[in-house]
Amino acid sequence: MRSSRSLSLMLVLAGTGFILLLEIxxxxxxxxxxxxxxxxxxxxxxxxxxxxxxxxxxxxxxCGILGLWDRTFWPGRFRHRLLLCWLWSVLAWCYFDxxxxxxxxxxxxxxxxxxxxxxxxxxxxxxxGYLLSFGAIAPAMFLTAxxxxxxxxxxxQAAGIRIPRAVPALSVIVGAVFFIAPFIEKSPIANxxxxxxxxxxxxxxxxxxxxxxxxGDWIAGRWGRTLALMAGGLxxxxxxxxxxxxxxxxxxYHLPFLGWWQHVRYFEMPVPGLSGFPGFGVEVWVMWxxxxxxxxxxxxxxxxxxxxxxxxxxxxxx
Length: 318
What we know:
By secondary structure, the protein is mainly alpha-helical. The chain has 12 helices and 4 strands.
C-alpha cells in the first residue's frame, strides 16, 4: 500500500510540475520570445502542442489523485480499462468530427460549427497530436467525474423514481430522431442535438441489457453519478477552452444561430456553448457503457478484485 501511495504521489507531482512548466513556457511565448533562438523554438513547439501536452499531464495528475484517494495505483489497478478507454476515445471523437466536417456547414459562410486552424505542418507531429488529444477526451472527463464522486457526489441519493414502461422506447425514438437530424439539417444548429442524441438512443439499451445506465441509476435513487459526469464534462470543458485560447494549433467556433450571444465568449467558446459540456460528459459515458457490452470482459474484474468491480458498476465513472 505504501508503494502504491508513493507512486501515486509521484504521478501528482510529476503531472503538476509538467503542466506548470508548460504554462510558464506558454505565457512566455505569448508575450514574445526570439524566434531565432532555442528558447523561441521551444515556445513555438509548446504553443503548437499545448493541447496534447497539457491533457497528457492532466491525465497523469488525475490517476495520481485517485490513487492517493483509493490507496491503490490506478494505472496498474485499472490498466486495461484506462488503455482501452484512451484508444476508444480517439474513435469516439472522430465520430463527432465526422458529423461536424461532413454535415454541419453553414450555407451562408461555408464554415462548420467548429474549425481547426494552425495545425502542425509536420505530419508526424500532427498525427501524434491528434492521438494524444483525442485519446484524452473520454478518460479526462471520466476520471474527473470519479474525483467529483469521491468529493461527495457519491452520497447524493434519494428515493428512486418509477419510470413507465413506455419511457425507454420513447427515449430511443427521440434519440433516433436527434441522431438523424444532423444528416438532414446539415447546418451548425444541429450542434444542439449531437451532444444529447446518444443519451436518449443508447441509455435505454444499456439499461435493458444490464449495463450501468443513467436510467438505472435514477430508478435506484443514485443521482450522484449523473451529477459527477456532468461536472466532469463541464470541468474539462473549462480547461479545454483555457488551454486552447493561446494555442497556435487550436479550434474556433461558428454558431450564428446564437445571435449576438455568439460574441460573448469564454476564451473561444460562446458562453451559451458551455452548457453543452455537461451533456457531453454524460453522452460519452453512455457511449462507453454501450461499447462495453462487447468489451466488458477485457476491462472488468481486473486482477480478480470482484468487490471493487461491483462497487465500480454502481458508482464508477470509467
